[in-house]
Fold this sequence. Notes:
By secondary structure, the protein is an alpha/beta fold. It has helices at residues 3-17, 81-84, 112-126, 140-150, 173-189, 195-206, 218-223, 240-249, 267-281, and strands spanning 35-41, 44-51, 55-60, 89-94, 132-137, 155-161, 228-231, 253-255. The two termini are 24 Å apart.
Amino acid sequence: MDSKRRTLLASGAAATAMAAAPQAFAQAKPAGEAGTKFFEKGGVRIHYRETGSGYPLLVIPGGGLSGDMTSLTAASSPFNPMEEFKNEYRCITSDLRNGMGQSTGPLEPDRPWDMYTDDHLGLMDHLGIKEFMVIGFCVGGPFIWNLLKRAPKRVTAAVLAQPSGSRPEARELFYDNNMKGWGAELQKRRPDIAADVVDKFLTKMYRTNPDFVFTVTRDFVRNCQTPLLVLPDDVPAHPFAVAIETVMLAPKSEVSIYPWKDPKERIPVTVRQVRSFMRAHRPA
Length: 284
């Protein structure tokens, strides 16, 4: 561990000791205004929720393209950042467009990843938030990398929890799973979206560039200057090898203990690490 990372960890420890002290943030939101709302732009309608106050924290739920806010409270989610961090952060989350939640909009088969990033950045613009931290589960990993590519100066730190990645021996995994699951369900709810449009969308998303983390290259990760904390997993959709490769490449990366979800007694330890990491990189 180099001296700069020691300094960051020391800063995190100091911040922990001062956690009870009142802090003012330029982008603070009064507690008590938390709630579920809608944001509309053009033909897109995003269902979102806020809770807590402090420095802004964007929370991207897991659950693949079907992900919505309820995923954060489901048994499949190791912990819920909205509850864990609301006492220190203005936590913001939303349903993915055309997932199982209430966010809707057109399907953009020529720019699938950017479609979702438009929604994330558009929501933060709507809320008047310029800079923010982000934590994302599962497909949130590729979404975070795309945020870092599109708006590197806006994301001050990122936590990638059980991030998705492409395994050489299973390049078709995400396309096949989404055609059978998300895509089939979407067509039932949205008969205006044809099967060939869903196919084109998923082909562009998962087949055109099926390597690594889908949204950025290894050279991008190697040159990324945003502080990162990675919480690896090791299931077909969340390959351990890809998560660790990002840690090894990114110059300002950290990694949690592994395994961190099993036994369950380890999850609070990991949440403490996430909290310390965010405190260390939270702008004063």
